[in-house]
Specification:
heterodimer; A: mainly alpha; two-stranded antiparallel ribbon; 20 helices; 2 strands; globular; B: mainly alpha; 21 helices
C-alpha cells in the first residue's frame, strides 16, 4: 500500500523549498564584506543544481498525487535525511577545492542531523556565508526533526513513539501524512523561531557580535554544535555567554510539544506534568555537580567555581547532544568525558532535536526492569509500567525495549567496524557514540581539539551511517532496506 | 529474623560440605609433600569449627525454606563461600593480600578463570588443584542452581526448567523429577571430567596437569597451573581435544541429558540454539584467522588458523585459556572475541554471558518490531526450535538484556572512576561480567595482580553479578524482597 512515486513527489517539493534556503548564504556572500567570489559562486551553483533537480523530479512524479499514509513516512524521512545532504554538500565541495566529497557529505549530514561534528579546520578564517550555511543546516535540520519526531515517528510507532504523542498538540488522530506534518509544523515552528529570537538577543546582550550571535543561535536551537570558531565557546571566554548558551540548550532539549502547550495556555504546570522534564533536569544538573566535584578533586581545575563553570557548560552541551565546548574535555581524567558520552545517549527529551535514546525510553526501560525484579520477588503480583499515571500496554514496553536493544547492537557493531578499519578504541568508540547520538566532538583524535578530518574515508562513512541511523531512529533506515518494505 | 536464621542454618550446612572439598587437595598435598598441608589443614579445621558452631546456634530456627529464602541462600553462598575458598590461598601463599585472595576465589567459583597470581608454575601443586577445583564446583553449582531456582525467578532462558522448580538443598521440597535431572547433570559432568582427564593424559600431560586442566576445562573456568596457560604445552593435538570438550561444555546440559536418557542424537537436531552456536563460532574463527593473517601477525594461514581457532573458541566459551598473548593482536580481533564471550554459550550450559538463546530471542524480537512498524496489524510469533516463545518470556529476556547492558556500562564507568584507561577498564569488566578471564590493556592475558584493591573488588562484584544472572543478586537488595 505504499506509493514510492507519490513519496518522491512530496520529496521533490521539500527539496524545492530547501533549495531556496541556499539563497540566504548566497545573499550573505554577495552583500557581505570579507567574502570571496568563490563563495557566492559555490552557493549559486548549489542553488541551481538543487533547484533544477527538484523541479525535474517534481515534473516526473507530479502525476502521482496519492494520499500518503503511515508507511510512506519511512521512505520520505529516509529520502530527506539521506539525499538532501548530498545537495547541501555541493557548496562545501565547490568552495573547498581540496575537500573530498566524503568529507563534504559528512559535513552536510552532520549539519542536517544536528550532530555538529565537523571535518573542517580553520573555521575562524572562513567567510561568514560558509559558516552561515553550516549553522543554517543545523537550524533546518532541527525544524525537520521537530516534525519528524512529533508527527511522523509516532504515526509509525517506532520504538514506542506512539506514547510520546499522547500530550502533543498536533493532530493526533490524523493518519494522512502530509496534513499531519504541516499542522505539526504550524504548531511547533513558531515556538522554535521565538526561542531563536530570544536566544540571539541573549547572545548579543551577553557580548557576542551580531554575526556570531546569529550563527550560534541557529546551532544552539538545533542542538547542532557547529561554531564559527575552532575553539568553539572558548573563543569568547565569557561565563555570561556560556550561561545564556546553557539556558537555551536546556530549553531546546525539552519536548517542544510541552513548550507549545505551556505557551498556548500560559501556564508552567505543563512542565510539571511532563514525565520527562524532572528527570531530564535532575539527571543533567546532578551530573554537572558530580563532574564538577570530580574535576575539582582530581585537580583538573584549581578551585571549585572554575570546575563548576567548565563542568556545567560541557556536561549540558554533551548531555543535550549540542556539542559545543569551552575547553578540551578530552584531556580531563577519563571518567568525566565517559560519563558525558553516557549522558548524551539518553538525556534529551522526546520531541526535541536532541539525539540518543531519549529520556522517555530510558524511564520506561528503568520501570520495566524494576517491575521485572519485583515480579521475581512476588511472582503473583500484577504491576503495570506506568508513565504519567497511565499504565502502558506490554506491546508498548516491547517496542521500547526492542528499540533500546537495537540501539545497543548498532553501537557495538559500528564500534567493531571502526576497530576493523584500524582505529584505536578511544577514538573509534567515542566517534561512533557521538555520531550515533548526534552529539558532536568525541574523544581521542576526534576530540574537541581536533576534527573528524583525520578519519579515513571508510571511517567517515561509518560515522555518516551512525549519524543517519541515530537520527532516523534505526528502524526507519532498516525498514527501507528490508525486502518486506518493497514487497507488494 | 527467624527467616534469616533458617537461611543461615542451611548455609552453614552448605559451608560444611564445601569445606570437605578441601580433602582432595589435602590428599594430593600429603602424597606429594608439597608443603601446603598445614595451610589446608588449618583452613579445613577453621571451616568445620565455624560451620558447626553456626549450625548448632541456629538449630532451633530450622524450617522449610520458601522460594525467596532460597534466593537469599544462593546469594549468601556465592558471596561467602569464596571467603572460605580463599583461606588456603592466604595461608599457603605468603604476602598475598585479602583482596587478591578473595578475587581469586570468586574467579574460581564463578568459573571465570581470571587470576591475580603470578608464578603459577612454582605454586605447590595442591594449591593449583584447589584453584581449579573451585572452578569445577562453581561450574556444577551454577547448573544445579539454574535447574533449581532460576526458572522460579522467571528469568528468561531457563524456561525449559519451569516445570521443575525448587532447590538443590535436600531439606527443601524436592520433586522426584528434579532430583533425577540434577543427578543426570552430575553424571554427565563427572563423566565428561573423567573423559577429559583421560584424554589429556593420553595426549601427554602429567596426570596432575590433566586433572587440573580437566577440572577447569569442563567447568569453562580457565585456571591453569602454568602462567603460559595451554601455550605451555604447545601441542596442536591437545588444543584440538580442548576445543572438542569446550564445544560440548558450551552446549545445553538439558540437550545432553535428553540425548543420553533417550539414547538418540535427535535432541541435538531439535535444539534451536545449536545451528546459531556453531555457525557464529565457525564464521568468527575463519574471520579472525584471515584478519590476523592479513595483518601479518602470523606468516602463514595454518598457524593463524590454529591460534585463531583455539583462542577464539576458548574466549567465546568463556573459558579463557590462551596459547598466545592475543591481547597484542590488532585490536579488532580481541574485541571481537570479547564480543563473542558475551552471548555465544547456550542456555543451561556452564558458560557465562547473555547466552545464545537470549541473543536469538532478541534478534527475532527486533525483526518482529521492524515488520510490525510496517504492518501494524500483522500477528507475528517469535519461534525457537519450532516452539512459540510466549510474550512473557520475551519481556523478561528483553528486561534482562537491558539490565545486562546497563550493568556493563555502569561497571565500566566505575572502573574508569578508579583511574584505569578505557581498554583495560572496559575489557576487564566485560571479561569478568561474562566470567571469561583474560582481558586486554594493562591486565592482558596473564594477571590481574596489577589492579588495586578497589578495582579487584569491583571485578569480584562483576563476576558474581554475571554468574548470578543479575536478578538474583539484585533482588536481595530491593525493599520488596524484605517486606513481609
Amino acid at each position: 500500500m505504499s506509493h514510492p512515486l507519490a513519496v518522491l513527489r512530496v520529496f521533490a517539493l521539500a527539496l524545492l523549498a530547501f533549495s531556496f534556503t541556499l539563497l540566504l548564504p548566497a545573499a550573505a556572500a554577495w552583500f557581505g564584506q570579507d567574502e570571496t567570489p568563490a563563495a557566492f559562486a559555490a552557493f549559486m551553483s548549489g542553488f541551481t543544481a538543487t533547484f533544477a533537480s527538484a523541479v525535474c523530479l517534481w515534473l516526473l512524479t507530479r502525476r502521482y498525487a496519492n494520499e500518503l499514509r503511515g508507511r510512506d513516512g519511512f521512505l520520505l524521512a529516509s529520502l530527506i535525511w539521506v539525499v538532501t545532504p548530498a545537495f547541501a554538500a555541493i557548496p562545501f565541495a565547490l568552495f573547498f577545492p581540496s575537500m573530498s566529497f566524503t568529507d563534504a557529505y559528512f559535513e552536510a549530514v552532520s549539519g542536517l542531523t544536528t550532530t555538529g561534528a565537523t571535518a573542517i579546520t580553520g573555521l575562524d578564517a572562513l567567510p561568514f556565508s560558509v559558516n552561515l550555511w553550516r549553522a543554517l543546516l543545523v537550524f533546518l535540520g532541527g525544524m525537520g526533526l521537530l516534525v519528524l519526531t512529533v508527527a511522523i515517528l509516532p504515526l509509525l510507532g517506532i520504538g514506542g513513539r506512539q506514547l510520546f504523542s499522547a500530550e502533543s498538540p498536533g493532530p493526533v488522530k490524523e493518519v494522512r501524512l502530509v496534513p499531519r506534518m504541516v499542522k505539526t509544523a504550524l504548531y511547533l515552528w513558531p515556538i522554535y523561531f521565538a526561542l531563536a529570537v530570544a536566544c540571539a538577543l541573549g547572545y548579543a546582550w551577553a557580548g557576542m557580535e551580531w554575526g556570531d550571535a546569529v550563527l550560534h543561535t541557529l546551532a544552539t536551537l538545533g542542538l547542532g554544535g557547529f561554531s564559527s570558531h575552532d575553539a568553539s565557546y572558548a573563543f569568547f571566554d565569557s561565563p555570561v555567554i556560556e550561561a545564556v548558551a546553557i539556558l537555551f540548550m536546556t530549553l531546546a532539549g525539552m519536548n517542544f510539544a510541552t513548550h507549545f502547550m505551556a505557551a498556548q495556555r500560559r501556564s508552567l504546570s505543563f512542565y510539571r506534568a511532563d514525565p520527562e522534564v524532572r528527570w531530564y533536569l535532575g539527571v543533567m544538573y546532578a551530573s554537572v555537580l558530580g563532574v564538577a566535584v570530580y574535576l575539582w578533586q582530581t585537580d583538573t581545575f584549581p578551585d571549585f567555581p572554575a570546575a563548576l563553570r567548565f563542568a556545567a557548560f560541557n556536561v549540558v552541551s554533551l548531555a543535550t547532544t549540542a556539542g559545543f565546548f569551552n575547553t578540551d574535555y578530552a584531556l580531563w581524567p577519563f571518567f568525566a568525558p565517559l560519563w558525558m558520552l553516557f549522558l548524551s545517549s539518553f538525556v534529551s527529551c522526546a520531541g526535541s532535536a536532541g539525539g540518543g535514546l531519549k529520556m522517555m525510553r530510558a524511564l520506561i526501560v528503568f520501570r520495566q526492569v524494576t517491575r521485572e525484579v519485583v515480579n521475581t520477588v512476588h511472582p503473583n503480583a500484577v504491576r503495570a509500567v506506568k508513565l504519567a499515571e497511565a499504565s502502558l500496554s506490554n506491546e508498548m514496553v516491547f517496542a521500547v525495549l526492542a528499540f533500546t536493544f537495537a540501539y545497543m547492537v548498532s553501537l557495538v557493531s559500528l564500534t567493531l567496524l571502526m576497530m576493523f578499519s584500524g582505529q584505536d578504541l578511544v577514538t573509534g568508540f567515542s566517534a561512533v557514540v557521538v555520531s550515533f547520538n548526534n552529539a558532536g566532538p568525541g574523544l581521542g583524535s576526534v576530540g574537541p581539539g581536533a576534527t573528524f578530518a583525520s578519519l579515513t574515508d571508510f571511517q567517515t562513512w561509518v560515522c555518516i551511517v551512525a549519524m543517519l541511523l541515530g537520527r532516523l531512529e534505526i528502524f526507519i533506515l532498516l525498514a527501507v532496506f528490508s525486502p518486506a518494505f518493497w514487497r507488494k | 529474623m527467624e527467616r534469616l536464621l533458617a537461611v543461615i542454618n542451611v548455609f552453614a550446612r552448605v559451608a560444611l560440605i564445601f569445606g570437605l572439598a578441601m580433602l582432595l587437595p589435602i590428599g594430593i598435598s600429603w602424597w606429594l609433600d608439597d608443603g601446603a598441608l598445614t595451610a589446608f589443614g588449618e583452613a579445613l579445621l577453621t571451616t568445620l569449627v565455624i560451620s558447626a558452631v553456626i549450625l548448632l546456634a541456629t538449630h532451633h530456627a530450622r524450617r522449610e525454606l520458601r522460594a525467596n529464602d532460597g534466593i537469599l541462600l544462593v546469594v549468601m553462598c556465592w558471596i561467602l563461600l569464596p571467603c572460605i575458598g580463599s583461606v588456603p590461598l592466604l595461608l599457603g601463599i605468603p604476602g598475598l593480600e585479602i583482596a587478591d585472595a578473595y578475587f581469586e576465589a570468586v574467579s574460581g567459583l564463578t568459573s571465570t578463570g581470571a587470576t591475580a597470581l603470578q608464578g603459577l608454575d612454582e605454586l605447590p601443586p595442591s594449591l593449583n588443584v584447589w584453584r581449579t577445583e573451585l572452578n569445577w564446583i562453581g561450574g556444577l553449582g551454577i547448573i544445579v542452581l539454574a535447574v533449581a531456582i532460576l526458572p522460579l525467578l522467571g528469568v528468561g532462558g531457563r524456561q525449559l526448567m519451569r516445570a521443575e522448580v525448587p532447590s538443590p538443598i535436600k531439606d527443601i521440597h524436592l520433586t522426584p523429577r528434579v532430583a533425577e535431572t540434577a543427578k543426570g547433570f552430575w553424571k554427565i559432568y563427572i563423566g565428561l571430567t573423567l573423559l577429559c582427564i583421560l584424554t589429556y593424559w593420553t595426549l601427554g600431560m602429567t596426570w596432575l596437569d590433566a586433572l587440573i586442566h580437566a577440572f577447569s576445562t569442563v567447568a569453562l573456568g580457565g585456571f591453569s597451573s602454568h602462567d603460559a596457560s595451554l601455550g605451555f604445552f604447545n601441542s596442536p593435538g591437545l588444543e584440538m581435544a580442548t576445543i572438542v570438550f569446550l564445544l560440548i561444555s558450551g552446549m545445553s546440559y538439558v540437550t545432553h541429558f535428553m540425548a543420553l536418557s533417550g539414547r538418540s542424537l535427535r535432541p541435538y537436531l531439535r535444539d534451536g540454539e545449536l545451528p546459531f552456536y556453531l555457525g557464529v563460532l565457525g564464521v568468527s574463527v575463519l574471520m579472525i584467522a584471515l584478519y590476523i593473517w592479513f595483518e601479518g601477525v602470523y606468516p602463514d594461514f595454518p598457524t593463524a588458523l590454529r591460534h585463531a581457532a583455539f583462542n577464539t573458541i576458548s574466549m567465546a566459551m568463556t573459558l579463557g585459556y590462551s596459547t598466545t598473548d592475543f591481547s597484542k593482536w590488532p585490536l579488532f580481533a580481541p574485541l571481537w572475541m570479547l564480543f563473542l564471550c558475551s552471548f555465544v554459550t547456550c542456555a543451561s550450559s556452564v558458560g557465562g554471558g547473555l547466552k545464545m538463546m537470549r541473543a536469538i530471542i532478541l534478534y527475532k524480537q527486533i525483526s518482529r518490531s521492524i515488520v510490525r512498524a510496517m504492518h501494524p496489524n500483522a500477528a507475528i510469533l517469535v519461534k525457537l526450535g519450532g516452539a512459540v516463545v510466549p510474550d512473557k518470556i520475551i519481556l523478561s529476556v528483553l528486561s534482562f538484556s537491558a539490565l545486562y547492558m546497563v550493568s556493563l556500562v555502569c561497571l565500566t564507568l566505575a572502573m574508569a572512576a578508579t583511574g584505569t584507561d578505557i581498554v583495560t577498564g572496559f575489557s576487564v569488566v566485560v571479561t569478568c561480567f561474562n566470567n571469561t578471564g583474560p582481558a586486554l590493556g594493562a591486565v592482558g592475558t596473564d594477571s590481574y595482580g596489577t589492579l588495586n584493591d578497589l578495582q579487584l573488588y569491583i571485578c569480584s562484584f562483576a563476576m558474581l553479578l554475571g554468574r548470578l544472572e543479575i536478578f538474583t543478586l539484585l533482588m536481595v537488595f530491593t525493599p520488596a524482597f524484605w517486606r513481609k
